[in-house]
C-alpha cells in the first residue's frame, strides 16, 4: 500500500523539540504474533493537542493504549519499545500502574460513566486515589464540573443516575472524572464520534479549552475536526502488514505541505 518506505517513520516527529514531554522510540504492538503497529518514533512537547489520524485498522488505538499501558489489560497483547513522559519510563518494571493511569488519563469513544449517580462517578476515583476528606472532594468535584461546563446543568441533580444524562453530558462527565485526578496527559479515543452534532461541538470546544492547559492526544476520523483543533498531526498507515507512523508535523504544515505522498492523498480524500 503506498510507495513511501516505512523508514520515513523514523523522521516522523515534529521539528524543534528540544525536550520532548512524551517520547516514544521503536514502539511495536503485537496481538499474538501479529504486529498491529511497528517501529513508531514519536515525540511531542508539553501542552497542546496532537491528533492521531489515519484509516481504520492502522493502529491509532493500539498506540494510544500503549501509552498508559491499557495494553497490559488486553490478553495476548505485547508491547516492545520505549515510552517516556516527563521523567518516567512507562515500561520500567517499577512503574506503578495506578499512578501511571492517574497521570495519563483516558477518554473513550463511547461515554462510560459508572452505573452510579453523577456524584458517585466523581467521588469513586478521588477516594481510590486517597482524597479522604469529603469537603476536599466536594470542592474538587464542583471545580472540574465547572471546567467542563456541566456544573450548572447538573448541580441540582447530583444524586441522579449518570446514565440519565445525554450522551454529550455523559462524555463531559467522563472528562470531568478524568480531570479530577489532575492528569498530565489526556488520551482521547474518538471522544466525539458517538455523539450527536450538537453535543459533539460542545465536547470539541471543551477539548480546545483543555488543550490550552494540558497535553492532549486525540484519535479522530474527522479530518475537519483535526484541522480545527490540533496543533500537531500524526498520520498512521498500514505498510508491509503493520501500522506505521507515516508523517508527523505541525498541523498547518502537514495539511498545507505534506511531505509524504500518502499524506497528500489521505488529506485530499483520494486515499483511505
Ligand atoms: N484485541 C485485539 N486482538 C487482536 N487484534 C487486534 C486487537 N485490537 C486491535 N487489533 C488489530 O490491530 C490492528 C490495529 O487496530 P487499532 O484498533 O489499533 O487500529 P485503529 O487505527 O485504531 O482502527 P479504528 O480507526 O478502526 O479504531 C487491526 O488490524 C486490528 O484488527
UniProtKB/TrEMBL annotation:
One of its GO terms (biological process) is phosphate ion transmembrane transport. It comes from the Bacteria. Keywords: ATP-binding, Nucleotide-binding, Phosphate transport, Transport. GO terms for cellular component: membrane. This is Phosphate ABC transporter ATP-binding protein. GO terms for molecular function: ATP binding; ATP hydrolysis activity; phosphate transmembrane transporter activity. SMART domains: AAA. Residues 22-267 form the ABC transporter domain. Transmembrane segments: none annotated. The keyword NADP does not apply. It holds the Pfam family ABC_tran.
Amino acid at each position: 500500500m503506498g510507495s513511501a518506505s516505512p523508514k520515513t517513520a523514523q523522521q516522523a516527529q515534529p521539528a524543534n523539540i528540544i525536550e520532548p514531554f512524551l517520547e516514544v522510540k521503536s514502539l511495536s504492538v503485537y496481538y499474538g504474533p501479529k504486529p498491529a503497529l511497528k517501529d513508531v518514533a514519536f515525540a511531542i512537547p508539553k501542552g497542546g493537542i496532537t491528533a492521531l489520524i489515519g484509516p481504520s485498522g492502522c493502529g491509532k488505538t493500539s498506540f494510544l493504549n500503549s501509552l498508559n499501558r491499557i495494553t497490559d489489560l488486553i490478553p495476548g497483547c505485547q508491547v516492545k519499545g520505549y515510552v517516556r513522559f516527563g521523567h518516567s519510563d512507562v515500561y520500567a518494571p517499577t512503574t506503578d500502574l495506578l499512578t501511571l493511569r492517574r497521570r495519563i488519563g483516558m477518554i473513550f469513544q463511547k461515554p462510560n460513566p459508572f452505573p452510579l449517580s453523577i456524584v458517585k462517578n466523581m467521588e469513586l476515583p478521588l477516594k481510590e486515589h486517597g482524597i479522604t476528606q469529603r469537603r476536599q472532594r466536594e470542592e474538587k468535584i464542583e471545580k472540574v464540573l465547572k471546567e467542563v461546563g456541566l456544573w450548572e446543568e447538573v448541580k441540582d441533580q447530583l444524586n441522579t443516575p449518570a446514565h440519565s444524562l445525554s450522551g454529550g453530558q455523559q462524555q463531559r462527565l467522563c472528562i470531568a472524572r478524568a480531570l479530577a485526578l489532575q492528569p498530565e496527559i489526556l488520551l482521547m479515543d474518538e471522544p466525539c464520534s458517538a455523539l450527536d452534532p450538537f453535543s459533539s461541538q460542545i465536547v470539541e470546544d471543551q477539548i480546545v479549552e483543555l488543550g490550552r492547559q494540558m497535553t492532549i492526544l486525540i484519535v479522530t476520523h474527522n479530518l475537519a475536526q483535526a484541522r480545527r483543533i490540533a496543533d500537531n498531526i500524526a498520520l498512521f498507515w498500514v505498510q508491509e502488514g503493520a501500522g506505521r507512523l507515516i508523517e508527523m508535523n505541525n498541523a498547518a504544515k502537514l495539511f498545507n505541505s505534506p511531505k509524504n505522498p500518502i499524506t497528500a492523498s489521505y488529506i485530499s480524500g483520494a486515499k483511505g
